[in-house]
Amino acid sequence: MRVAIFGLGYVGAVSGACFAELGHEVVGVDVSDAKIDMINRGEAPIVEEMIAELTAGAVSIGRLRATKDAAAAVRWAEVSLVSVGTPTARDGTPDLSYVDGVVRQIGEALKGADAAHTVIIRSTIPPGATERRLAPILEQAAGEKLGRRIHLAFNPEFLREGRSVRDFRQPPFTIIGALSDRAYDDVARLYAGVESEIIRTEANVAESIKLLSNAWHGLKVAFANEAGRILKSADVDSRLALNIFVKDTVLNVSPAYLRPGFSFGGSCLPKDLRAMVSIADRGGAAAPIMKAALASNEAHLDAALEAVRACGRRPAVLFGLAFKPGTDDLRESPYVALAERLIGKGYSLKIVDPYVDASRLMGKNKEFIEREIPHFVEMMARDAEDAVDDAEIIIFGHASGVDKGAILERGVGKIIIDLAGDRDLEFCGADYRSIAW
Ligand SMILES: NC(=O)c1ccc[n+]([C@@H]2O[C@H](COP(=O)([O-])OP(=O)(O)OC[C@H]3O[C@@H](n4cnc5c(N)ncnc54)[C@H](O)[C@@H]3O)[C@@H](O)[C@H]2O)c1
To answer: How many angstroms is it from 184 CA to the middle of ligand 1?
Structure first.
């Protein structure tokens, strides 16, 4: 394909040389004369493993060149890639002015032309920006609606500086947030030859994945460093501890616990997070992440309460009381906390959890629930169907298959507040609400 790449920084310079290696013809566009001259001399404008050889090779066989003439590059190309910078503005938001400007330039160059063209945004931008901000700019500049001749997609870049060519060749996945089928096909064609799963999704999801990934990496580094400070204060070599910690790819470094749902609880997570915080406090180690995890968990509970409050004070039924399905462990269950606060606010509440049998609760578990919700026995509904019929608000934490069936059948016309992210509930004819999706 004939490819124009706007912005010859780390992303653009690597993409240009690597797309040329894949067999495409590439022209790079930048505002920097120095970068353009370097590329045209066969020199890479950045320092990166393998990039010097790749750039020199691609330029020597005429597959890669650079220019300042944006309009000529766009008219020559079938696709334009935008990889200009999106630095942090004064107020902390990403400054999208370079992306806006380049998209406008591309649109103006396409005005009145006949050939089809796909614009691919690779710069990191906030969720919604491709569709709500850049699509209108492109349409206005080109003087026509998108989706006929001119197409638009967001395609995030996951390369790591220092090993970016290797990352380009073996990305974790190729994500295409295309606004049209043609846009999707063009981006997919561009990556033919790169072995990775291609995922088509909404543009705002694709934009989110890039931000989520970097937020997650930042969180992981900060977590490891914080863990190191805390463990050091307890005379533990954190390098040994974290080396072993990451060997658990079932629970620790895995998709486990990475699904939006309701607050965590139970007898271990909150208790052991508090233990880490106490070790940190005793040892004088700063532990803002461990503390924030507890605070964030509370904030999630508050969001659930707010969602119920927004429905008005109507009779409610809560499905799920134990901290997770299939157990009767109520200790520090977030559903107990939710129930306790709703009761405190005067809600008429019934609770359905077939695993919680009041007559069989013992020890700390019994003590806990009797302290938190003294009259909880009276609130436990015997029959899920009756409980749904009597309620106007159904709060869904977790439920057995049979009890969920009762909601699906009898929840029509009622409000469902889904704390679990259960897709079946979304289309059962209820007024479906959620707090994190
Ligand atoms: N650096 C990375 O490892 C990396 C990885 C993934 C995504 N990203 C994202 O990709 C984007 C680019 O990052 P980068 O590190 O390559 O940036 P960079 O600052 O190295 O390069 C940006 C380039 O864009 C050029 N430019 C600015 N305005 C222009 C215009 N109007 N026309 C043409 N060129 C113009 C600049 O001269 C510069 O060469 C950012 O949004 C970044 O967040 C970066």
So the answer is: 23
